[in-house]
Write a structure and sequence with these properties.
This protein has about 700 residues and is of the alpha+beta class. It folds into 4 domains: about 120 residues, PAS domain (Beta-Lactamase), CATH 3.30.450; about 110 residues, PAS domain (Beta-Lactamase); about 160 residues, Alpha-Beta Plaits (2-Layer Sandwich); about 250 residues, EAL domain (TIM Barrel), CATH 3.20.20.450. It has 25 helices and 27 strands. The strands form 5 sheets. Strands 18-19-21-22-23-24-25-26 form an 8-stranded mixed barrel, surrounded by 4 helices. Strands 2-1-5-4-3 form a 5-stranded antiparallel β-sheet, sandwiched between helices. A 5-stranded antiparallel β-sheet has the order 7-6-10-9-8. A hairpin with a 7-residue loop joins strand 4 and strand 5. Helix 14 crosses helix 15 and helix 18 packs parallel to helix 20. It is elongated. Bound molecules: ligand C2E and magnesium ion (2 copies). Ligand C2E binds next to strand 19, helix 15, helix 16, strand 21 and strand 23.
Length: about 700
């Protein structure tokens, strides 16, 4: 033990004049020391046991920048130390003093020149016992830059850690034995287990849904064996309660990266994105994924899609409000759940469309049975707000076959079958067959061509005269749309109007029909000035009734042609009125206010209701051709037809409306209609629809007679 106080500080070592070779002695010799000092950027100081500076090297030291070296002599070295580091420095100095020959290092802040604080590394060597030195030799290095760099690194690491800790994505670090070495807090939400419970645990693929594990095959094993390998996949992750959540998982093998030395697993919860908010059922994207996966499997022969679409769901929304519509969908989802098996998937595609993906069908009959079960489940009334609501559904069934490539194809097929079910009267199922494949392709082709047709001016109007039965006079014409197809010739509306309706193209096409029909009547008036009022009837689709611009379109057609409003008659089918009652009621009321006449087309084929005949203030009922066709037949159906025509004409007259019979083809039909006092007739017997030029002669004869 050296008693520091017993050692008398000697005078500072002064560099001795350059004499002799550098000494190899352990004791610093003057020249050796001077040379060392000269090449070092460190400052060298000798302090006494009490901290007083006895010597300060001439160059380089951080403290020197502040004052001339001579000024430092006799100064208390502690005066330079930042107050926060004082205690630690004193402690280190005490320890150093107690052990002769020992050394110590501190990293502390000091006050340097111009009020700056610098970080220094001070290394002290206790040479108090050495009579030649009798002090503590200190070398001081400015480490401010290194310190700042470290601080930045620490901050960025902290930030990075905070990001990991607060991210909703879970991050895991596994070693090559799949043991969890690190888990970020978000694992708890996904795996239902706290971080502690997962750390150190084996993270085997058993955390994944068996189907997803199977779909992964060898890829997981491969990843663990492939340094720098990356694997991204979607799978269901099992939580502590054995519930599954959909997650997007990406894994990176970084065993070769010494900073990581493991496999990084990034798990993102995508479950909420894949489910429908309203019903909680899987949504379209999820259905597509699962369907895609099933189709990729070698044996897809037991797979089938059953697509369910409610009939006239809009009516519920319109009459009871959207909240009740939503409530109905929730009830419907429950009923559908009750008919599907645990291993079948029920999804909501959107709106009132649901789909069942089954992989347990041994044949088409089983899919049909499933569809029947669905229809039966829906047939019971739904109770909404205390009211019984009856609703039907149309179902399309599709199976993968040679022509089905992917999920899109199969969904399209199910959709086509469902549309066929609607077209064949709703409330039923239809199986997709290969003929429908052709239909679908044809539809797509026509759809594309139809888009161009309007711009190409490929539409024509034919006109069919309407005669007053009392005197045989032409009272009007019905405008009937034709499409001059570039390769297929003149197409009837049956071929393309439904497509135009589905795509919404019927709106601009219909506007063209209105303008053209009104203008044609005006041209006839110019050609034949004596021609009295001539009514023109134009057919409107349901889709047009919901078009907010309909009123403006009709008004401008009238203004441009200067046709009096009451010479324009708009024909709307009963089913069009049923599609969207509220919108239809408003549109029709506005049109009536404009002075336009309204007729109900194909009367008797839809949901005839006296209530809306009054509500819509129509002027004419057009008895559907199918009933006129059976007039006078003695067969069972024919007898019905006669009764229906009689009833319709009577109904029209009772309500103060006019009746027009369509599709009159025989003299017998004409005679019977006359006896029934039907007001107007239209049919091939009297005149076929024809281009305007061909009709001019007939109209001229009318003027002449
Ligand atoms: P609709 O309004 O009931 O028109 C009557 C249909 O019966 C026309 O068929 C007409 O050519 C046909 N027809 C007339 N007399 C006879 C007859 O004696 N015997 C037979 N067998 N048929 C007869 P078309 O022109 O093929 O039109 C079919 C349907 O297409 C129309 O039925 C109408 O619903 C729709 N349509 C026609 N033009 C337009 C239009 O510009 N816009 C809209 N939205 N639909 C239209
Ligand atoms: Mg019509
Ligand atoms: Mg009709």
């Amino acid at each position: 033990m050296t008693d520091p106080s017993a050692t008398t500080p000697t005078s500072p070592i002064r560099p001795s004049p350059a004499t002799g070779a550098p000494s190899r002695s352990a004791t610093p010799n003057g020249r050796w020391f001077a040379a060392l000092e000269a090449i070092s950027s460190d400052g060298v100081y000798l302090i006494g046991p009490d901290g007083e500076i006895h010597y300060a090297g001439p160059e380089g030291g951080p403290l020197h920048r502040r004052e001339a070296d001579t000024d430092l002599l006799g100064v208390q070295a502690f005066g330079f130390i930042h107050e926060l580091d004082e205690a630690a420095t004193l402690r280190a100095l005490d320890e150093l003093r107690d052990a002769p020959g020992s050394h110590a290092t501190v990293e502390i802040r000091v006050a340097a020149g111009n009020g700056q604080t610098r970080w220094i590394e001070a290394r002290g060597l206790n040479l108090l016992g050495d009579p030649e030195v009798a002090g503590i030799l200190i070398s001081v290095r400015d480490v401010t830059d290194r310190h700042e760099a470290q601080e930045l690194l620490r901050q960025s690491e902290e930030r990075f850690r905070a990001l990991l800790e607060h991210s909703s994505d879970a991050v895991l670090l596994l070693d090559t034995h799949q043991q969890v070495r690190y888990a970020s807090p978000a694992v708890e939400h996904l795996f239902g287990r706290p971080v502690d419970e997962l750390t150190g645990r084996q993270m085997s693929p058993s955390f994944l849904h068996p189907d997803d594990r199977r779909a992964l095959g060898h890829r997981l094993v491969d990843l663990f064996a492939t340094p720098a390998g990356i694997l991204t996949f979607e799978a269901r992750v099992r939580d502590a309660a054995s519930r599954y959540r959909w997650a997007e998982i990406s894994m990176r093998n970084l065993v070769d990266d010494p900073r990581v030395a493991g496999i990084v697993v990034h798990v993102r919860d995508i479950d909420p994105l894949l489910h429908d908010d309203l019903t909680g059922l899987p949504n379209r994207p999820l259905l597509r994924r699962l369907l895609e996966r099933e189709l990729e499997r070698a044996d897809a022969s037991s797979l089938g899609l059953v697509l369910v679409d409610l009939d006239r769901f809009r009516l519920v929304n319109d009459s009871l409000g959207h909240d009740q519509g939503d409530a109905l969908l929730v009830l419907l989802a429950d009923r559908l759940r009750s008919v599907v098996h645990d291993d079948e998937l029920l999804a909501r595609l959107g709106g009132d469309e649901f789909v069942i993906l089954s992989t347990r069908l041994s044949g088409h009959e089983q899919a049909v049975e499933l569809a029947e079960r669905v229809l039966e489940a829906i047939s019971e009334p739904f109770v909404l707000d205390g009211n019984d609501v009856h609703i039907g559904a149309s179902i399309g069934i599709a199976f993968p076959d040679a022509e089905v490539g992917d999920a899109t194809d199969l969904l399209r097929d199910a959709d086509a079958a469902m549309y066929r079910a609607k077209a064949r009267g709703r409330g039923r199922w239809e199986l997709f067959d290969s003929r429908l494949h052709d239909d679908v392709r044809e539809r797509l082709r026509l759809q594309n061509e139809l888009r161009r047709a309007l711009a190409d001016g490929a539409f024509r109007l034919h006109y069919q005269p309407v005669f007053a039965l009392a005197d045989g006079a032409v009272v009007g014409v019905e405008a009937l749309l034709r499409w001059e197809h570039p390769t297929e010739g003149l197409l009837a509306p049956g071929r393309f109007v439904p497509i135009a309706e589905d795509t919404g193209l019927i709106v601009p096409i219909g506007a063209w029909v209105l303008r053209e029909a009104c203008q044609q009547v005006r041209r006839w008036h110019q050609e034949l000035p004596e021609l009295g009022p001539l009514r023109v009837s134009v057919n409107l689709s349901a889709r047009q009734l919901t078009d907010p611009d309909l009123l403006a379109t009709v008004r401008s057609a009238l203004v441009l042609s200067e046709l009096p409003a009451d010479q324009l008659e708009l024909e709307v089918t009963e089913s069009a009125l049923m599609e969207d009652t509220e919108a239809a009621a408003t549109a029709l009321a506005d049109l009536r206010d404009l002075g336009v006449r309204l007729a109900i087309d194909d009367f008797g084929t839809g949901y005839s209701s006296m209530a809306y005949l009054r509500r819509f203030r129509v002027e004419t009922l057009k008895v559907d051709r199918s009933f006129v066709d059976g007039l006078g037949d003695t067969g069972e159906d024919g007898g019905d037809d006669t009764a229906i025509v009689t009833a319709v004409v009577t109904l029209a007259h009772t309500l103060g409306l006019q009746a027009t019979a369509e599709g009159v083809e025989t003299q017998d039909q004409l005679a019977r209609l006359r006896r029934l006092h039907c007001d107007q007739v239209q049919g091939y017997l009297l005149a076929r629809p024809a281009p305007a030029e061909e009709l001019s002669g007939l109209l001229a004869r009318r003027v002449g007679s």
